[in-house]
Write a structure and sequence with these properties.
By secondary structure, this protein is an alpha+beta fold. It has a domain of 139 residues: Nuclear Transport Factor 2, Chain: A, CATH 3.10.450. It is 47% helix and 13% strand. It has seven helices and four strands, in the order H-H-H-H-H-H-H-E-E-E-E. Strands 1-2-3-4 form a four-stranded antiparallel β-sheet, with helices on one face. Strand 3 and strand 4 form a beta hairpin. Helix 4 packs across helix 7. It is elongated and about 130 Å long. The termini are far apart.
């Protein structure tokens, strides 16, 4: 009795399953079309990636510019002389009522170093009257970054931010000029005395051409901060 085989058995028996497949032109054309389509999609993705990268880079550049401007708002260039100023801006010789107003050459060089570096270490060991003279010098010379650095900014003070301070000065050039003239007039009108009470100090300005009364005296307040250095109070004049 012969065994019946399905039709596909004969076909499989007569066919070499390991024979190489012959590609027709239709096969080749189909493969080329798929490759072209994939390349087209890949090119589109690359363009999108490059566009996204360009946008991110542009945003980063803008943010860096904004941060730079915020941190340098109204920054005042402070050219530092190598000699203490001995005359007013109109070249009039200063007639000091008290030699305590004056900075010696050594003291001025110390001030100039602080104006350049703003290093708090340079304030260590200074007396309140020394910091006062530095503050007056900075105000007179237009060294606003330095005058701000000399202000007390401890907890509980009302000292404005650096940006607000510099911005207000930039908007009030008339006030800046009045401040310079005020100090120059004080040099010839008041003698100085220093009073220290714990972490509080006052520079007392005593009139030399007017009666020495409470109404004619002026005070400049300073505070010793937690680092142990003297700083000018905000709105120090009284």
């Amino acid at each position: 009795m012969s065994e019946q085989r399905p039709e596909w058995y004969g076909q499989l028996k007569d066919t070499d399953p390991f024979a190489k497949r012959t590609f027709t032109m239709n096969h080749i054309t189909s493969i080329e079309q798929r490759i072209a389509q994939q390349n087209k999609l890949g090119s589109r993705d690359r363009r999108r990636s490059l566009l996204a990268l360009a946008v991110v880079t542009a945003c980063a550049v803008i943010m860096v510019g904004v941060i730079f401007n915020l941190t340098n708002i109204h920054t005042v260039k402070e050219p530092i002389q190598t000699q203490p100023p001995e005359a007013t801006p109109n070249n009039q010789k200063i007639d000091y009522a008290d030699e305590k107003w004056k900075l010696t050459e050594t003291q001025y060089l110390q001030y100039a170093q602080y104006a350049e570096t703003k290093s708090e270490a340079l304030l260590i060991g200074l007396e309140p009257i020394d910091v006062f003279r530095w503050y007056v010098t900075a105000s007179r010379m237009g060294h606003h970054e330095t005058s701000y650095a000399l202000l007390d900014k401890g907890a509980g003070t009302s000292t404005p931010s650096r940006e607000e301070y510099l911005s207000d000065l930039a908007k009030d050039q008339a006030g800046v000029e009045r401040s310079k003239q005020m100090w120059e007039s004080y040099w010839s009108e008041y003698r100085l005395e220093q009073t220290i009470d714990g972490d509080t100090a006052y520079i007392l300005m005593i009139p030399v051409h007017k009666p020495d009364t409470a109404e004619n005296r002026k005070f400049f307040g300073l505070t010793k901060n937690k680092e142990g250095v003297w700083k000018a109070n905000w709105l120090a004049m009284q």
